[in-house]
């Protein structure tokens, strides 16, 4: 086997943030292929190689591993759905010549919210060795002070003072360097964790059907960052508190108990005050989220604002603002108390230190010129106690938010995996019962869709046309009955197969809030020539300059509703799926354009199953089958025209 493959696959996995074990580089190709998952240790994902038939799959993953004619394994990237060899002596690879190929599949490990939380906590940066150096330098603080103070008092020349001062500055610079190094390591670890979170969130979006998932994902992201940043600092704070307390105890002997009793009382009062508005903060956050969603809906329906009832609209705004302000005021009051306590602590800690030191000087002969060193240590101890309380509060608060959000996401969660299918030849809907459909037709639905045919779904608004499309696509699972693709239940088919072989375009779909180029990329379209072709076809008046393509959000482009709809649909149709589900795709088109669109759709995707919901009677003659969902004169029926 070739020696380049292990390094190629190792470097690729590193670049993707998979963190493979270094022994992968020295392994042979066969071991990597057969034992791929053993080369990774990841808290959130497991990695495996899955066989793929490149000749039949229309949409390819971004990277494939395959055998060449000489029996060597190679890693090749996929650009614009073309396999590009990683070898310098080869260019594009003909799919038909590839006999055996695999792609890297990531699977989410945690299957429950508790497992996910454990995985997140196991990713907290661990830097015990680096922190130990920092603690050593922190403990030398009183030594610096004593040397510095002694030389100031007893020196007779400026040279000694200069040397001691320079040494003092150098040691502080070293301590700063250690802190910077630790911070960079933590930042690097957290950056890697964030990249993994992005992969987790993509799984959440595709597998969880919880409402308002975006806000929950944002909550999890904020909580994770807080946990990862604060936990290492809490660990350091505890070590510092122990170390500084030990130094004070050794210096002041049993008189240090007076100072420690003060800190114990301060810690208890501080924890009580800081955590007293914990529940208030939770309620405040919930109200803020509700308020934000309300304002977002106002922004989304801004055209309708002038037609709202003014009195009701004003009252709605007032209620949400007053609620938010009430909790904000209560939290501010508690925060004020905490702030005042920290200020008082600065004075009281010195008073109790002075009392303890005075007794130690009088009864134990403690050197009074060492008092400055004790004051330095006490000042740092005081600030670290406050830091510990603050960081512990943040971790507790964010941990609660994390648990709440993750539990809701996992409540209605479809596990990864499932059957891989190479094509969709037939779809059967058997004994389907769904409330929206039952209201229209009064009985269960039984339908059969075959490859090469185009079907129209018609019926009045509310008859269940869009619902039926969602059920067939596997998006809506709240029904009884069966939906089968090639005799496999739609629930058993893998997300990968559904993503590659099904197009679902709803009338409510719109361009994503990112650049136009990024919108195309989400549909797997990267080639600028293809982007220009689709734009000229769907929105010929749009100037495709750098501003419109890369800078402006796509939803801000000067496009009509029909142009936006055509653009969204054509982006999705690009992958040439086996099943195409379109919800009223001609609603913004003229009769002539509607007929041309349907004719073009039928011609381009003659080997696919096409199901279109529509209200346009003038295009019905273009379809092979017409499924009529209607309710006339109280008679509910399902009509299939052949």
Automatic annotation (TrEMBL):
Any one annotated GO CC term: plasma membrane
Classification via InterPro entries: AAA+_ATPase, ABC_transporter-like_ATP-bd, ABC_transpr_LolD-like, P-loop_NTPase
Protein name as it appears in the record: ABC transporter domain-containing protein
Keywords: ATP-binding, Membrane, Nucleotide-binding, Transmembrane, Transmembrane helix
Xref: SUPFAM superfamilies: P-loop containing nucleoside triphosphate hydrolases
Signal sequence coordinates: none
Molecular function GO labels: ATP binding; ATP hydrolysis activity; transmembrane transporter activity
A UniProt-annotated Pfam family: ABC_tran
UniProt organism field: Vibrio scophthalmi LMG 19158
Positions of the ABC transporter domain: 427-642
Keyword Protein biosynthesis: no
Transmembrane segment boundaries: 127-145, 157-178, 238-271, 344-365
């Amino acid at each position: 086997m070739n020696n380049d493959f292990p390094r190629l696959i190792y470097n690729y996995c590193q670049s993707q943030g998979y963190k493979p074990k270094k022994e992968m580089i020295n392994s042979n190709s066969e071991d990597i292929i057969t034992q791929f998952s053993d080369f990774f240790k990841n808290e959130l994902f497991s990695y495996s190689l899955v066989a793929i038939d490149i000749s039949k799959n229309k949409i390819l993953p971004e990277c494939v591993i395959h055998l060449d004619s000489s029996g060597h394994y190679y890693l090749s990237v996929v650009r614009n759905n073309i396999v590009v060899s990683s070898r310098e002596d080869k260019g594009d690879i003909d799919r038909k010549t590839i006999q055996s190929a695999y792609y890297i599949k990531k699977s989410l490990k945690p299957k429950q919210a508790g497992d996910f939380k454990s995985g997140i906590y196991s990713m907290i940066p661990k830097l015990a060795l680096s922190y130990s150096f920092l603690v050593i330098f922190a403990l030398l603080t009183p030594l610096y002070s004593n040397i510095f103070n002694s030389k100031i008092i007893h020196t007779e020349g400026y040279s000694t003072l200069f040397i001691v001062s320079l040494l003092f500055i150098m040691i502080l610079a070293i301590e700063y360097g250690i802190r910077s190094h630790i911070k960079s390591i933590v930042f690097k670890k957290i950056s890697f964790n964030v990249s993994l979170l992005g992969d987790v969130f993509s799984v959440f979006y595709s597998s969880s059907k919880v409402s308002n998932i975006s806000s929950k994902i944002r909550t999890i992201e904020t909580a994770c960052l807080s946990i990862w940043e604060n936990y290492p600092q809490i660990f350091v704070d505890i070590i510092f508190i122990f170390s500084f307390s030990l130094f004070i105890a050794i210096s002041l002997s049993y008189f240090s108990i007076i100072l420690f009793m003060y800190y114990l009382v301060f810690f208890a009062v501080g924890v009580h005050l800081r955590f007293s508005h914990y529940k208030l903060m939770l309620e405040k956050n919930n109200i803020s989220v509700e308020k934000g969603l309300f304002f977002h809906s106002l922004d989304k329906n801004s055209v309708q604002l002038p037609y709202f009832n003014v009195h009701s609209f004003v009252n709605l705004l007032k209620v949400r603002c007053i609620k938010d302000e009430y909790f904000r005021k209560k939290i501010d009051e508690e925060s004020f108390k905490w702030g005042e306590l920290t200020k008082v602590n600065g004075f009281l800690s010195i008073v109790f230190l002075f009392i303890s030191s005075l007794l130690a000087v009088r009864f134990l002969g403690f050197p009074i010129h060492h008092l400055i060193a004790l004051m330095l240590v006490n000042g740092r101890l005081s600030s670290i106690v406050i830091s510990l309380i603050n960081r512990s509060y943040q971790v507790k608060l964010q941990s609660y938010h994390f648990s709440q959000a993750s539990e809701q996401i996992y409540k209605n969660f479809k596990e990864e995996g499932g059957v891989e299918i190479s094509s969709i030849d037939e779809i059967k809907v058997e004994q389907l019962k769904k409330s929206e459909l039952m209201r229209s037709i009064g009985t269960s639905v039984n339908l059969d869709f075959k490859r090469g045919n185009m079907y129209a779904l018609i019926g009045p608004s509310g008859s269940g046309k869009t619902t039926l499309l969602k059920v067939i696509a596997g998006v809506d699972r709240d029904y009884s009955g069966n939906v089968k693709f090639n005799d496999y239940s739609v629930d058993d088919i893998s997300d990968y197969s559904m993503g590659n072989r099904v197009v679902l375009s709803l009338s409510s779909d719109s361009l994503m809030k990112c650049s136009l180029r990024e919108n195309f990329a989400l549909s797997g379209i990267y080639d600028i020539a293809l982007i220009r072709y689709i734009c000229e076809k769907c929105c010929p008046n749009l100037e495709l300059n750098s501003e419109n393509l890369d800078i402006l959000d796509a939803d801000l482009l000067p496009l009509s509703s029909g142009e936006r709809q055509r653009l969204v649909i054509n982006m999705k149709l690009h992958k040439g799926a086996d099943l195409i589900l379109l919800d009223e795709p001609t609603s913004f088109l003229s009769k002539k354009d509607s007929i041309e669109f349907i004719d073009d759709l039928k011609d381009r995707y003659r080997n696919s199953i096409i199901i279109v919901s529509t209200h346009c009677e003038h295009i019905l003659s273009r379809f092979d089958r017409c499924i009529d969902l209607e309710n006339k004169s109280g008679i509910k029926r399902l009509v299939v025209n052949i």
